Amino acid sequence: MSKKTVKPGKDIVASMVSELKKELQDMIVEEGVTELEIDLEGVEMVDSVGLGAFIATHNTLSQKNGKLTVINASDDIFSLFRTMRLDQHFEIHQG
Amino acid sequence: MLINLDTHNIFVEDTKRYLDEIEKDLITLENMGADIAKPFAEKLFRSVQVIKSSAGLLGFSNIKELSQKLENVLGLISNGELDPNPEIVNILLLGFDRVFQLIENLHKSNDMEIDEQSVMLTGLTSAVLPDEKKKSVTQIRVIHIPSDKHTFQISEFNLLQVINQGKNIYILEYDLIHDVQMKKITPLNFVRFVQQHGEMIDSFLDIYSVGTLEEKTSEHKMPYFILFASSLDKEELSNELDLESNKIHDLKNELKDLIKTQGKVYSSNSECNFIESNVLDQNKKKILSDLTNEFSFAYDSLVSEMLEKKDSINSITLNRIGMVLSSLKKQVNIEYSVKASDALWKLVRKVRDYGYKNNIPSKLEIESSDINMDKRITCQLIEPISNLIIKMIDSINKLQNNRHDAKIKDSIQIIIQIIEEDKDIIIKIYSKNYSFNNEDILLDLTEEQKQINALNANCSQEQSAEKGVVLKVKLKQAYSILDGYNVKIDNQDYIFPKTYIKEWILNTEISDDIIKQVDQNFIILVQEKWIPFIDISSKIDIKDFQYFLNKKTIVICEVGYIKFAIGIDSSKQSEISVVLQPISKHLGKDSTIIANCLLTDGKIAFIPDMGYFAYQASKIKIT
């Protein structure tokens, strides 16, 4: 079981999601990461496609008995994840 | 609604105002009893609804959840199903106290515990309901979403509360890709937009439709279902939310067993109150901004007239400055001016809680006409005055016990009478039902007197044949505003008036080495209760300089030809505006503290009078 942290450092929106998803997929599928932490420091906005990336990552990790944790979420992003009940699927911590 | 940085501050201010009102109304409710409780309970109900809706809108889930539980209990009181006795009011007050704490720590509120209050409120709700309704609190209703992939599971009691408010319950069916992303809306703004039109009771994001990182699907979908309560009908909702009608599922049939003709419909637009107050606040800011601009313009005109060396300065310019200053002062006063009876209402709660805790039934009544006070002053008065009243209650209780008076079991009634006398406000405190006699002793007011004196007020007591012991607090009504720097000297806040500061030096800890480098022509004046300073326009003895060791900064002040230095503990100067109150009067002829003031956070600071400093310094004879 290996653990890794990813820090996108910029808004998670449609224009960058393909690249991010590729990076996450490589980590999980090729490197065998099962405990993935996404550090949202510096991330101010997540659009719907970005939300999809979090969910797809969670779904992928779940299939492999892994775990996704989101850290340093801004107040707004934390509130959004809670409202959409995503905190029931993976851990989310405020910055 | 645009959520910006000010929105949270406005929410905090508005909610605090609501909570103040709620606290007052709860105590009134308790005193009134069940007969006339209904209108008060309905008012409380609506206030807590506004707090809940605003908290939901801004994503503060704990505030929303606790408000919901408080609303449930208030709903029962307004329906006449629950008697607002002291025990129930106490639980409500504790619940609202917790909401206040959540508001005070807004950004941590979602992580704070609310279990204790939630359990008490839920217990209260279920315990007092008749058996046929009792099960609704724990009874969970399962509502299937249209695709049948998930179910919402909600307490029937919560659904009933929403139905009782005259709201309709729907499931809204969205796709976050097509209905949100494609319309270039962020999910956060989307959620806030939806919440402006009703209450999101629960929601479900279908994460299984999204797939995994490995799946390459050509068509992305993110179905999102919202269990939604709104006073709007289906068609209105479809228009307002720009959502096709077939994606709005009315649950009227599914919940028909819960929907009864209640005959009670609350104002459907409680969510709007918060937004209205936002607009009001912005209007106030605009007025202040306009006045400031006008003042700046008038000042520029005055300066240019002076530069042109006109023989007489245009009286229109001066008039304009006068008018703007007067309007600005009025605006500031409006902000801080509050009815004395409203500002001191917290005392009623304090007396109530003390009596409740110590089993001494006590009531406090406030009698005042339309007297206004500065709320920064009154908030400082609450603690000493409530201590005075508690001492009075204890004293009466003790006397009654000693005398074995039959009236001992009656509630102790304390009256606070607020009157105006010249430019002073007099607060009289006495007991309504109990007269003291010669064997009564006066109360020890030493500690409270100190606190009250610091507010430029004084406190005394007298015995009257009619009213027994009467406590009197006397304070000034008028204040002026002063700009200055806030500094800390020996753990005491001081304000240095802006205009007298010559320079700030040695922005670091002052050591022996530094002192030796300084010109030795100094003299030091140390008074026990006053700020030590040195007259740097005269010669001084270096050994007297020891006081300045370990001070972080020395402030050089200049008044006329006198220059002097003051050592202070803080390395930063913070610029502030303060309310200035002269206090020389009660300090006596030889007093050295010239003035005090209240900072905007309500703390007391002292203002050294630089003219006085200069005068004292000039009297020092150099040896």
Topology:
The complex is a heterodimer of chains A (95) and B (623).
Chain A: E1 2-6, H1 14-30, E2 33-39, H2 48-63, E3 67-73, H3 75-83, E4 91-94
Parallel strand pairs in A: 1-2, 2-3, 3-4
Helix pairs in contact in A: 1-2
Chain B: H1 5-32, H2 37-58, H3 61-78, H4 86-104, H5 115-128, H6 131-138, E1 140-144, E2 151-155, H7 156-164, E3 168-175, H8 176-181, H9 187-195, E4 199-205, E5 223-230, H10 234-241, E6 248-250, H11 270-307, H12 315-336, E7 337-339, H13 340-343, H14 346-358, E8 362-368, E9 372-374, H15 375-403, E10 412-421, E11 424-431, H16 446-453, E12 457-464, E13 468-476, E14 480-489, E15 492-497, E16 501-505, H17 512-517, E17 523-525, E18 533-535, E19 553-559, E20 562-568, E21 574-582, H18 584-587, E22 595-598, E23 604-607, H19 610-619
Parallel strand pairs in B: 8-10
Antiparallel strand pairs in B: 1-2, 3-5, 3-6, 4-5, 7-9, 10-11, 11-13, 12-13, 14-15, 14-21, 16-19, 17-18, 18-20, 19-20, 21-22, 22-23
Helix pairs in contact in B: 1-2, 1-4, 1-11, 1-14, 2-3, 2-9, 2-11, 3-4, 3-5, 4-5, 5-6, 6-7, 11-12, 14-15, 15-16
Defining traits:
heterodimer, A: 95 residues, alpha/beta, Transcription Regulator spoIIAA, four-stranded parallel β-sheet, 3 helices, 4 strands, globular, B: 623 residues, alpha+beta, Four Helix Bundle (Hemerythrin (Met), subunit A), Alpha-Beta Plaits, 5 domains, five-stranded mixed β-sheet, five-stranded antiparallel β-sheet, 19 helices
Commentary on this structure:
The complex is a heterodimer of chains A (95) and B (623). Chain A contains 3 helices and 4 strands. Chain A has helices at 14-30, 48-63, 75-83; strands spanning 2-6, 33-39, 67-73, 91-94. In chain A, α1 (14-30) packs parallel to α2 (48-63). With 95 residues, chain A is α/β, with parallel strands linked by helices. Residues 261-280, 517-529 and 583-593 of chain B have low confidence and may be disordered. Chain B has 623 residues and is of the alpha+beta class. In chain B, α1 packs antiparallel against α2 and α14 runs parallel beside α15 (375-403). At the A-B interface, α1, α2 and α3 of A face α8, α9 and β4 of B.
